[in-house]
Amino acid sequence: MRALVVDDAAEGHLARTEVADPRPAPHEVLVRVEAVSLNYGEVAEAASLDRPDGTPVGWDAAGVVVRAAADGSGPAEGTRVTTLGEAGWAELRAVPASLLGAVPEGADPGAASTVPVAGLSALHVLRRTGSLLGRRVMVTGASGGVGRYTVQLAARAGGEVVAISRDPARADELRGLGAHEVRAEPAAVERPVFAVLDAVGGRYLVDAFAALQAGGVLVSVGRSAEEDAVLAPEALQGAGGGHDRSIRTFFLYGDPAVDFSADLSWLAAEVAAGRLDPGISWRGPWTRFAEAAGALLEGRLHGKAVLEVG
Predict the structure, then answer these.
(1) Which of 14, 139, 145, 308 minimizes the number of CB atoms within 10 Å of its CB?
(2) Contact 303, 283 (CB under 8 A)
């Protein structure tokens, strides 16, 4: 089969080449991939010098089951699925049942491929914050993949969403997704917030932490700013009554025992029904990976990029 693998000599540090077909374990299904979506973290990782040439990459992919799991744990052959894992930018991938969800018949595989990392991260972080009904929720990096899903899910949970986006052209779009307030940076937010989902890090994390009310929580899900977050001593003193605030980290694979299948199926159904908008802003064949990756790394791409495999 063909797959995208690390190649430091190639444009975008990836090359499409022939590799061996995956050999599914008894608890894994074999999926013929139709579309994949890109995340900033995996693209940056592929472009780093830390991974040897020939390493397969890719977290998110959607397609069709062509071989059911030998132990009967997964969906039947012919089921359309969205999948999470590694080595997904390929014509075939082997996936355990816990890392895939069913996709409605007739749904767009490109849209379904945006669900795993971005949708699951948004859903699980918001669950960690507790009830959002009537509470203010700040989302940094709101125009990105995780941020966009978070804005929509937080608004549906009854939160008063404060979206942070450096692109003023995105303000009306974010309000259409459910944001009550749109600001260019956390320091511009005037009223305290109960919770923060921070996908940017650096100064944004520091300023967002300062905006938390007493008992509030900030969850760090990304560091796209690629700069240090330095908290001054007074930031931890609770000036103005902001005591008992916390910073939590988040890693999607943090609990190796978690089964994502139900959540992936629900998110895929919501996207297919039009109740969640994945915000696909770039789409093309997977031969154009370098073009999509460059736009993502240079900050020219907001939302999700989808590559069609064929």
Answers:
(1) 308
(2) no
